[in-house]
Inverse folding.
């Protein structure tokens, strides 16, 4: 499941995100969603979230 629809992402769900500085390489970071930062229902590059570790990125994969 990809992370382009906000309704698919819930707080506490494990996801893989790409951070801003890793967008070119596509390196993904695992984590658990603490906050959902994107207000719109969808986003073509992934919904922006903050993980429990404080990392902010766009969701690419929902576990």
């Amino acid at each position: 499941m990809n992370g382009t629809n906000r309704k698919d992402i819930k707080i506490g769900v494990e996801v893989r995100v790409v951070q801003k500085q890793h967008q070119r390489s596509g390196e993904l970071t695992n984590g658990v969603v603490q906050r959902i930062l994107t207000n719109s229902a969808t986003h073509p590059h992934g919904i922006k979230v903050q993980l429990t570790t404080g990392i902010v990125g766009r969701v690419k994969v929902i576990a």
Summary: The chain has one domain: 6-62. The radius of gyration is 10 Å. DSSP finds no helices and four strands in the chain.
